[in-house]
Design brief:
mainly beta
């Protein structure tokens, strides 16, 4: 009888569904996020064993700074995270990511992607040389959601000379 709990745990840990499609590019507050990173589809996912952790959230500060955070926990403790920070986002339109920073901070707009196993193993960010854009297509302050599309190149913060290319990015997230 002791073998049943062990089998259940093994089955749960082995259930790793990869993201195989990008979400539709909606503008309704559907709480979706996805992109291609170097051609591979990436999207937020929960860990089936510990499903309580938030995988997609957005918040907007009183000064209009918008922060979107998407996480993929499917292979926990290995996980990936994608952050978009737009300084002074107050309307639809295109926002540029073209400032060099040594680490994510609220000084300028940035996009940040990290792979970690408890601590970061690799981190990438937009910079003055590796730029990108996000186009806000819907900004609904009554229903409290924001939608948009994005693309960019990002440089590895650990001196790996190979940048990553993010394409076909889209989000439609509720603002908390």
């Amino acid at each position: 009888m002791k073998i049943v709990p062990v089998l259940v745990v093994l089955i749960l840990f082995s259930c790793k569904k990869e993201v195989t499609e990008l979400p539709p590019a909606t503008q309704t507050g559907a709480n979706t996020f996805g992109c291609r990173i170097d051609g591979t589809i990436w999207g937020p996912q929960k860990n089936p064993v510990f499903p309580g952790a938030a995988i997609l959230e957005a918040r907007q500060e009183p000064d209009k700074d918008l922060y979107i955070n998407a996480r993929n926990f499917i292979s926990s403790p290995n996980e990936t995270e994608f952050d978009i920070f737009i300084k002074n986002m107050n309307a639809t339109g295109t926002y540029n990511f073209n400032t060099t920073m040594s680490a994510p901070n609220a000084g300028a707009s940035y996009v940040y992607y990290v792979k970690r196993n408890i601590t970061p193993q690799n981190e990438w960010m937009t910079s003055a040389s590796y730029t990108g854009t996000v186009t806000i297509t819907t900004y609904d302050t009554v229903q409290r959601f924001v939608s948009g599309i994005f693309q960019m190149q990002m440089i590895n913060l650990y001196n790996d000379p190979q940048p990553i290319r993010v394409t076909e990015g889209r989000f439609d997230v509720k603002i908390q």
